[in-house]
Amino acid sequence: MHDRRVAVFGIGGVGGYAADALIRARVGTIDIFDNDVVSVSNINRQLIATHKTIGRAKVEVMAERAAEIDPSVTVNTHNCFYMPDTADSYDLSVYDFIIDAIDTVTAKIELITRAAAAGVPMISCMGTGNKLDASQLEVTDIYNTSVCPLARVMRHELKRRGIEKLKVVYSREQPIKPKEAININGRNIPGSTAFVPAVAGLIAAGEAIKALSHSKAV
Q1: Could you tell me the CA-to-CA distances from 136 to 58, 140, 177 in Å, in that order?
Q2: Are the C-beta atoms of residues 33 and 78 closer than 8 Å to each other?
Q3: How far apart are CA 161 and CA 158, in angstroms?
Q4: Rounded to an integer, what distance in angstroms lies between the CA atom of residue 70 and that of residue 28?
Q5: What 3-state DSSP class applies to 7?
Q6: Per DSSP, what are the bridge partners of residue 182?
Q7: Cα separation of 158 and 154, whole Å?
Q8: What distance in Å separates the CA atoms of residue 74 and residue 161, rounded to the nearest whole number?
Q9: How far is CA 75 from CA 27, 30, 107, 113, 188, in A?
Q10: How far apart are CA 118 and CA 91, in angstroms?
């Protein structure tokens, strides 16, 4: 496992736990992508979010955590949002596996289509907001999903682009309507818990580890 390289896109409630699990599994090189900083609103659900880390770049905090867990693991930080206008800067073919924990549909589609073109196996995380039952998370193909609003959009967009399959972790739980809507810049933000995104991230990491373990060059 120490000769493998995995990329995690998005170091939030899902991606932070996925990256942490990869580090503890001693994946040799992990690339982490995120252009956000830790904020107070992250503390309820993100592994690296504490009052001590508020205002710091998430990728830098994650890299420091990795060094404390296992200094032999190389963590490459990319303080950027992976979007169509930045995607050409990165060669996805160098990775043995990719974990997509991005929130933005445009970015997810760009990453998925480019990973498919490069022949790199991956898992994509669907929505975990407004969910309370982590036991309803499951791994399946995107075209076998139901209920999840994000998965519905992704099915439509990926079919249009000729993507025939994609492993995802998603929840069959019906979204819960928050008692009080959180609106930021005219957009309602889903409520979130500490445990559902965390479990989704650990499941994604588990799928990566299984894929790496079953491949030839272990």
Answers
A1: 28, 12, 17
A2: yes
A3: 5
A4: 10
A5: strand
A6: 189
A7: 6
A8: 34
A9: 10, 5, 22, 25, 34
A10: 9
This prediction has a pTM of 0.93
d(CA 215, CA 218): 7
pLDDT tens series, the chain, 218 aa: 789 999 999 999 999 999 999 999 999 999 999 999 999 999 999 999 999 999 999 999 999 999 999 999 999 999 999 999 999 999 999 999 999 999 999 999 999 999 999 999 999 999 999 899 999 999 999 999 999 999 999 999 999 999 999 999 999 999 887 655 554 455 555 678 899 999 999 999 999 999 999 875 43
What does the block give as tokens for 67? 């060094």
DSSP labels for 22-43?
HHHTT-SEEEEE---B--GGGT
Q: How many CB atoms lie within 10 A of CB 166?
A: 21
Residue with tokens 């272990």: 218
CB 47 within 8 A of CB 16: yes
